[in-house]
Structures are given as C-alpha cells and as structure tokens.
C-alpha cells in the first residue's frame, strides 16, 4: 500500500506509472494544512522522496533536504511533484519560474491541482522542448455514471472530519494497514490526489461534475466478498461552507457501514474560512448519521481519530482518554499508535 509509485489514469483500475524519485515542491506555502500532499508523500511514500524545493517566502518544510531542481536531478530525481493543495487548486504565476526550472533540469512535473499543467502554454511548450512529461492527476474517469443507491456487497468504512486537512487520509491509511496486519481483508480507497499517488488508483472526487460525484464514489468501492472491508479516504467536512458538497456526495456514494470522525484538538476555526467555527465531534456524528441513512440506514460511528501532532505524549494521552470517555467511543491518534489505536482497530474490524 505504501510502496506504490502509481497514480490513477482515465479509468479506475487503469494506472500509469509516475517517475520516481520525487522532488517535493512547496511553492510559497505558509500554512501547513495547505502542504498536505507533500506531508502525505513524505510519510507514506518517503522512500521515493529525495528532497524539497520552495520559494524563499515559504515557511513550511517537510524536513527533507532543500534542493534546487538541478541538484535534485543530479541526485537521481525524475519528477518534481507539486506538494501543495491550496484553495481552488490554482497554480500562481509566482510558481512559474520554478516549474520551468524543473522542466529545464529534465524533471517531469506531477500535479493534482484543479488547474491542469497541460493547459498552461508555457509549461506545455517547455515540456515538449525538453522531452519531459506533465502529469495531471485530478482528471476523473470518462463516462462516469450517476449514482444508483444500490446496496453493494462487502463492508465499507469512511473517514469523515470536523474540518478539512486534519487527518482523514492518514487515518484511512493507518486503519487499512493496521487491519491488514491483523489478517483482515482490508483495502485503502483513495478519493484525493495524494491518496492516488500513494495507493496507485482512485478518483479525485472533488474534480468530478456534481451530478456524477456520488456515482464516482460508488465506483471507488465496488461489490466485494462479504468479509472484505474498503477503508475509504474522506474529503472535506459536512460543516465546511466550501467543501460540504463533495463530503456529502462521497458519503452517499460510499454507503459506509461505519465511519470514524477525524478531529484536531485545539483547532478553533474552519481552515481558510474566517468566521466559521470547528463543530463539536458530537455534531459531526449526528449530522453524518442523519444524512448517511439515505443510502445506508445502518450507518454508525465506531470511533474517533485525533490529530495530536505538536502535543507531548502526556498531553496527547490525556486528550485521547478524555475524548473517548466523553463520547463513549474508542479514540486514538493513529500516528502515535499504542493500545488506544488497537482498540480503535477492534471497533473498525467488528
């Protein structure tokens, strides 16, 4: 699961190989939440990441060695991956000199942005001159169906969040890996560009036309053996004023039997949307069950995933224990692991 260097192509199950190792491009990011693609690749595909590159005003780092595109190419890098997931999926003009420098150094460009590399004349022309390729991952399969709402065989678990960019992908990856280690027939299903880079296939749900988004989510987890469990990467939040629509489509289309709520203690406001507070976990559970019952009347919450990065072990243990006691559900930080995470896996497995 973590050793794949593939990304989804125009059809689910049809994949194309991405050239590795990667140089991770952080642009001019100053908010760690907007660099989640770079962090995801560092944490789940670190063997393919050779270093990072950023503009001078960027304050976010993955901790990898800072390299120019030419230096990375000299060390064997074959592609520069845009490790940014900014609002709107845009490619700012200020990035262009660095993207062109990567092409001139002989590196392919890989992006999961809404703005496609191949639609930018300067990049397309430079790539042709230097014999490199532009890889746009946020391209949904052609001829997607509308959702049927038909109940499918097999089991499904979806990660949902109190906000965006707080650990839904990490949680799904950790749960799938943890259950597979127990001998459970579990598979991670990617619904975003970083997950696709890690898993090797999937659909970037937020790039799908609204009428077909739930249908795309149905394709992500097809009929399966009764004991098979698809662990589906969540997107956005039902409480996010910009991204609630994709969260709802993914919820309806995936028809989860179970869900895990992901939350970052201490986060006060919805990311990138001033004036909107992060909802309490209880509200997310209630709302997810309420709207999820449309396609799976038996939907239930089985646990809480907490992003305790930045806390001490003692602080994290206290928050995890308090949250579990307050909600009467297993709570854990999947990255920290331990007995708390094993109890969460128990609940996901049952």
Summed up, the helix count is: 11
- Briefly note the structural class of the backbone: alpha/beta
Report strand order across the widest sheet.
Answer: 9-10-8-11-12-13
Shape: globular
Proportion of beta-strand residues? 15-25%
Strand and helix layout:
Blueprint: E1 6-8, E2 15-17, E3 22-25, H1 36-44, E4 49-53, H2 69-74, E5 79-82, H3 96-104, E6 108-111, H4 121-130, E7 134-136, E8 155-161, H5 168-181, E9 186-189, H6 193-199, H7 210-220, E10 229-232, H8 244-254, E11 258-263, H9 281-292, E12 300-306, H10 313-327, E13 331-332, H11 338-349
Parallel strand pairs: 3-4, 3-5, 5-6, 6-7, 8-10, 8-11, 9-10, 11-12, 12-13
Antiparallel strand pairs: 1-2
Helix pairs in contact: 1-6, 3-4, 7-8
Q: What does the model show?
A:
- The chain is an alpha/beta fold and 350 residues long.
- The protein is 33% helix and 16% strand.
- The chain has helices at residues 36-44, 69-74, 96-104, 121-130, 168-181, 193-199, 210-220, 244-254, 281-292, 313-327, 338-349; strands spanning 6-8, 15-17, 22-25, 49-53, 79-82, 108-111, 134-136, 155-161, 186-189, 229-232, 258-263, 300-306, 331-332.
- The strands form 3 sheets. A 6-stranded parallel β-sheet has the order 9-10-8-11-12-13, with helices on both faces. Strands 4-3-5-6-7 form a 5-stranded parallel β-sheet, with helices on both faces.
- Strand 1 and strand 2 (15-17) form a beta hairpin.
- Helix 3 (96-104) packs parallel to helix 4 (121-130).
């Amino acid at each position: 699961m973590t050793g794949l260097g593939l990304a989804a192509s125009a059809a689910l199950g049809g994949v194309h190989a991405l050239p590795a190792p990667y140089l991770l491009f952080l642009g001019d990011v100053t908010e760690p939440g907007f660099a989640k693609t770079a962090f995801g690749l560092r944490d789940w595909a670190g063997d393919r990441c050779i270093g990072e590159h950023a503009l001078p005003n960027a304050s976010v780092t993955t901790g990898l060695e800072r390299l120019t595109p030419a230096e990375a190419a000299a060390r064997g890098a074959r592609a520069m991956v845009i490790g940014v997931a900014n609002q709107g999926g845009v490619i700012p003009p200020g990035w262009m000199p660095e993207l062109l420098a990567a092409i001139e150094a002989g590196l392919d460009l890989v992006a999961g942005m809404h703005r496609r590399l191949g639609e930018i004349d300067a990049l397309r022309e430079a790539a042709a001159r230097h014999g490199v390729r532009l890889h746009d991952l946020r391209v949904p399969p052609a001829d997607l169906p509308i959702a049927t709402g038909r109940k499918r065989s097999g089991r499904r678990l979806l990660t949902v969040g109190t906000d965006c960019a707080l650990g839904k992908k990490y949680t799904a990856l950790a749960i799938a890996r943890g259950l597979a280690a127990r001998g459970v027939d579990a598979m991670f299903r990617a619904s975003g560009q970083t997950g696709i880079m890690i898993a090797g296939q999937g659909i970037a749900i937020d790039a799908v036309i609204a009428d077909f988004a739930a249908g795309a989510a149905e394709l992500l987890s097809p009929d399966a053996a009764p004991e098979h469990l698809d662990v589906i990467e969540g997107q956005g939040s039902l409480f996010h004023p910009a991204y609630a629509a994709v969260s709802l489509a993914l919820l309806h289309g995936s028809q989860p039997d179970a869900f895990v709520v992901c939350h970052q203690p201490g986060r006060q406001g919805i990311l990138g949307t001033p004036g909107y507070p992060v909802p309490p976990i209880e509200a997310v559970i209630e709302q997810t069950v309420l709207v999820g019952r449309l396609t799976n009347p038996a939907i239930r919450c089985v646990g809480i995933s907490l992003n305790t990065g930045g806390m001490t072990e003692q602080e994290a243990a206290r928050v995890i224990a308090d949250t579990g006691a307050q909600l009467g559900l297993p709570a854990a930080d999947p990255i920290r692991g331990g007995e708390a995470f094993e109890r969460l896996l128990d609940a996901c497995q049952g």
